[in-house]
Amino acid sequence: MSVLLADIDATCAALGYSDGQRYQAEPDAIQGLKHLIWILRRDHDNHEYRRHLGHAKVLQTDLVYMLPEYVNDEEFADVLIRLLVILTNPTLLLYRDGPPKDNHGRKVFMELIDILQGYKSAFTRDKIWAALFGKLKTSLEVDWALRSEEQSLLIERILVLIRNVLQVPANPEAECRADNDASVHDQVIWALHQSGILDLVLFVISSPDEHQFHLHCLEILCLLYREQTAENLADASLQRSVSEKQRDEQELLAARRREKQRTSTKPPPGRHSRFGGTYVIRNLKSVSDRDIICHQPLERVTSIDFDREKQQQKRSFRHIREEAQVTRRSAFSVRLCLREYCIEVLRSAYNTLVRQVRRVLERNTGGTSHDDSYLLWAIRFFMEFNRLSDMKLELVSESLSVQCFHWVLTRMQH
């Protein structure tokens, strides 16, 4: 066991405590946070220190309560946000060569994902995002030409933190949420909406001067609508749509039909007769070229089965299952919120966002296709939503321009 694991425990224990009303940080809590950052930057290939911090739940018990109380302290908030960004980094970014193939590496990979899912549950509190809203708003109020480097870094870190929290994959087996119920992802979206963070993201993507943050905001948009479809959002209204009513009625009728079939099925008899007799089937030859002998009564000749005594070949369960695309109906209030937000993006920011991001991707020769995929997804999703909502074509005019059409065509061909 590494020596630094005990150092991590001692540092986490010395960060502070909660008295039931507010979080009280120790005088040297800033140095403790810096020390944790220093340790994480020297983590091993098996991410031992990161996993130890995750199991200690220092983010759930200390950091998320510390942020609202000390957000006005510039140095304290800066170090704390840096640590939160490092802890919530996507697991795939920790593995440059993709997910590990060996058993131990795969186990560590899944363990890191479970830790991130616990972190995501902690970010459903409104106070965290309200504190970050104040920091982000103060920095965005400064004109981009007069903004200091520290303020630009703070904006980028907050946007990356939002992206990191939203990208954590869902765990339907652990949440056990049905459709029209608020999952952890829905709760995070609702907290972002209530705190006003989404309005600031809309301001950034609608401003041509903030083009350096447009890629981060585009990722946030894609992750917001990750579990949604344009058709479901276009149908969302204050009253249930006709399609939803028909779908619910069909599901109810199917459930009643299954219950009726289950109750109407005859129970098996208490005693089975073993004296069914022996029969000869004419014109059906056996191996000895004689009529085949059947030791059970058959209603039809075609019911005879020669495979009853054969042993079925064992199936292999070691294949990796491909993860299907998760699409679900979120809570009604969340769907209304996302629908209104989608309309606001189309009316005030969509054309600017597509134009600026496309220019950034064209100038960035080292850009990856993963960055291109976010813009391609946004074009497809918002154009489909605009069509299904019967909105004006001018709202997506940038997607229909010659330059954008040529860019999409070249990305599809290459």
UniProtKB/TrEMBL annotation:
<dbReference type="InterPro" id="IPR006906">
    <property type="entry name" value="Timeless_N"/>
</dbReference>
<dbReference type="GO" id="GO:0043111">
    <property type="term" value="P:replication fork arrest"/>
</dbReference>
<dbReference type="GO" id="GO:0000076">
    <property type="term" value="P:DNA replication checkpoint signaling"/>
</dbReference>
<protein>
    <recommendedName>
        <fullName>Timeless N-terminal domain-containing protein</fullName>
    </recommendedName>
</protein>
<feature type="compositionally biased region" description="Basic and acidic residues">
    <location>
        <begin position="245"/>
        <end position="256"/>
    </location>
</feature>
<dbReference type="InterPro" id="IPR044998">
    <property type="entry name" value="Timeless"/>
</dbReference>
<keyword id="KW-0539">Nucleus</keyword>
<feature type="domain" description="Timeless N-terminal">
    <location>
        <begin position="22"/>
        <end position="281"/>
    </location>
</feature>
<dbReference type="GO" id="GO:0006281">
    <property type="term" value="P:DNA repair"/>
</dbReference>
<dbReference type="GO" id="GO:0009649">
    <property type="term" value="P:entrainment of circadian clock"/>
</dbReference>
<dbReference type="GO" id="GO:0031298">
    <property type="term" value="C:replication fork protection complex"/>
</dbReference>
<keyword id="KW-0131">Cell cycle</keyword>
<feature type="region of interest" description="Disordered">
    <location>
        <begin position="245"/>
        <end position="275"/>
    </location>
</feature>
<dbReference type="Pfam" id="PF04821">
    <property type="entry name" value="TIMELESS"/>
</dbReference>
<dbReference type="GO" id="GO:0003677">
    <property type="term" value="F:DNA binding"/>
</dbReference>
